[in-house]
Design a protein that fits this description.
Elements (H helix, E strand, L loop, with lengths): L1 E5 L3 H13 L3 E6 L2 H11 L3 E4 L8 H10 L5 E6 L3 H11 L3 E4 L4 H12 L17 H11 L3 H11 L4 H8 L3 H14 L8 H7 L4
Parallel strand pairs: 1-2, 1-3, 3-4, 4-5
Length: 207
């Protein structure tokens, strides 16, 4: 079974390669950004892609969309540090076969791989994803769920302190486009200014 590992951290890719190959899988390619992931998926016709969400160029959700639009039928397992509350369902709707966080142990990762390669899906977080403790949190959740995947990604990058220029370079967009997204986020999230984006993101475990 041929596997493509896509993550912008080389240590993660190396660890995943060792794990997969020691369990009988053949890692035929690795990618450090979204653009290369799509190209390598087309080139190698892999059976499985282990995919991070936060990568330079194209983020993981855009990678899934492009792979599905190309008609490539490979199974995609999202492996990420991002919150399943806001990403698990988005990945499922985009066409991923499974979602697991990097905080899970390796046994659970291998179980997820086996399940999705047997033809099933693996989204253990969805059942509990609608439950939170307070009305205030629920209000934030509803606001976040109305963001597009790109808006959510830009929110996270802004909250981490990245400049418009840096985000634009990573996403292959113009700084003016990022400024437009920033203004849209302030309006959609009902906050006073960009200064409050980081507080909003931290409050909701987005960074």
């Amino acid at each position: 079974m041929k596997v493509l590992i896509a993550d912008d951290h080389s240590l993660i890719r190396s660890a995943m390669k060792v794990l997969m190959e020691s369990n009988g899988y053949e890692v035929v390619a690795e990618a450090a950004n979204g653009t290369d992931t799509v190209q390598l998926a087309r080139k190698h016709e892999v059976d499985l892609i282990i995919l991070d969400i936060t990568m330079p160029g194209l983020d993981g959700l855009e990678v899934i969309n492009r792979i599905r639009a190309s008609g490539i039928e490979t199974r995609i397992l999202v492996l990420t540090s991002q919150s399943p509350l806001f990403y698990s369902q988005r990945c499922m709707k985009a066409g991923a076969a499974g979602f697991i966080t990097k905080s899970q142990d390796l046994t659970e990762l291998l179980r997820a791989v086996k399940i999705i390669m047997d033809g099933y899906t693996f989204f253990p977080y969805l059942a509990a994803s609608s439950v939170r403790s307070s009305d205030a949190s629920m209000s934030d959740i509803e606001l976040i769920q109305h963001l597009s995947a790109r808006e959510l990604y830009i929110l996270q990058q802004l909250a981490r302190g990245l400049s418009n220029k840096k985000i634009a370079e990573d996403m292959i967009l113009s700084s003016k486009t990022i400024s437009t997204y920033k203004a849209r986020l302030i309006e959609k999230l009902n906050i006073k200014s960009v200064v409050y984006l980081a507080d909003f993101a931290k409050r909701n475990d987005l960074i």
